[in-house]
Amino acid sequence: MPEAVAKIGIKIIVNGKTCSLSVEPRQLLVELLRETLDLTGTHVGCDTSYCGACTVLLNGKAVKSCTVFAFQADGGEITTVEGVEKSGNLHPIQKAFGEAYGLQCGYCTPGLMLSTFQLLSKTKDPTEKDLRKAIAGNTCRCTGYQNVLKAMTFAAKAMKESNGHQV
Amino acid sequence: MDAIGGVLCRCTGYRKIISAVIDAGREQILMSSAPAGTAVGNRMVRLDGLAKITGKEIYGADEIPSGALLLRVIRCPFHRAGFQFGDLEKYAKQNAITCVLTAKDVPGENRYGVIPKFADQPVFAESEARFKGEAVAAVAGAQAAVEKLDLTQFPVVWNELPALMTIDQALTPGAPQLHHGREQNVLVRGRVVRGDVDAALRNAEITAELEVETGFVEHACIEPEAGFARRAGDTIEIQACTQSPYMDRSDIARILGIAEASVRIIPTAVGGGFGTKLDLSVQPFLALAAWKLNLPVRMVYSRTESMISTTKRHPARMWAKAGAGRDGKLQALDFRADFNTGAYSSWGPTVSARVPVHASGPYFVPHYRALTRAVHTHLVPAGAFRGFGVPQMAIAQEQLYDELADRVGMDRLEFRILNSLTNDLPTVTGQVLGEGVGIRACFEALRPRWKAARKEAVDFNSSAQHLRRGVGVAGMWYGCGNTSLPNPSTMRVGLKSDGRIALHQGAVDIGQGSATVVTQICADALGCSIDRFDLLSGDTSITPDCGKTSASRQTFVSGKAAYMAGEALRREILRLVKACDCAKISFENGSVEVHEDKKLHRISLADLPIDKHGYVLTAEATFDPPTRALDENGQGMPYAVYGFGAHLAEIEVDTELGTIKVLRITAAHDVGRAINPTLIEGQIEGGVAQGIGMALMEEFFPGKGENLHDYLIPSAGDIPPIESILIEDPSSIGPYGAKGIGEQAVIPTAPAILNALHDAIGIRLRKIPATPDRVRAEILRCGITGASRG
Question: Which H helix or E strand runs over B376?
Answer without folding.
Answer: strand B367-376
